[in-house]
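Box S2. Input/output pair 1.
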Amino acid sequence: MKKYSAALCGLLGLLLAGCAAHDRQMGKARLVSSLPDSKPDWVAKASYEADGRIFYKGAVTGRQDMALGLRESRGEAEKKLAEEIRSRIRTEFGSAIEGQNEANSLGAYLKDIIAKVSDDVEVSGVSERGQYVEKWEVKAPEGVRYQWDCYSLLSISREDYLEARRHVQDQALRKVRDDRNAKAEASLKDAFGKLEAGSAKQAAPAVTQP
């Protein structure tokens, strides 16, 4: 009886081990191909700047259709670009306003205006600068299936960004004038002037000494 029980336990253990190994195989993915063959460096970056341009990546994974995945990854990149541009504009204006040591109430009022008008900012000059796709083979209970990870890279020039920032500037000035707030208007103009001066300094070519 004891021998029978031991044999039964051993058989049950083998069955459980086999099921566990089978479960581990299920869902296991294998890279089949990629386009292009080598993964671009930008795939590992959320955003970056180079050669006077600002780049933003969009990514989606596990898609059943490659074309749909690429459309979705571009949509993600467009969404991220718009959000990051708005955030950058607010941060730059906020820093310029804080640098003036304005009273808390005026500083908060100005930042609130910048936040509101930047929600509607439109960025022109957006161009697609790259795509990358990975095709994966996945084992599933019903058999082997394929899925795609898709990446898109969008870019705008630094000048296009500055143009979007100037649009926010114009809208903010219009708002404070409508509110008849002369002090806020003067403060905004000063902040805008500092930002433009800083941008011009960044764009100026380096001068080499003879």
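Box S3. Input/output pair 2.
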Amino acid sequence: MFAAVAETVPSETAASETAPAQAGPPALKYVVTYHSVPDFAPLAQLHFPAHHARVVEFHERGDLIMVGLLQEPMNGDSMAVFTSQAAAEEFVAGDPFVLNKVVATWTIRPWQEVLHQPG
């Protein structure tokens, strides 16, 4: 398990030169994992344009942070990171890969980021 350790060190740096303190841990994100059917390639090719359009839509809305295929082995499994559980559920519910059985099983799990860098 990762833990943050805080240490108080006197500093001569002016308050205006210090970075603003983060107000707490970053918000949870939600990871979707897809496990594809064994012979996924022909189905994936057929339904990719509609799936890709959905990926772009959710990314442009700000709901989808990142998405990609898992490698080694290249078996069609993938993962995506969403900003909310509702967005992850909405994506899966209407994804052409799910609706057309390119995906055999899927999961949505909350994920706590630990290397968050405030923007």
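Caption for Box S3: The mean pLDDT is 84. The first helix runs from residue 40 to 61.
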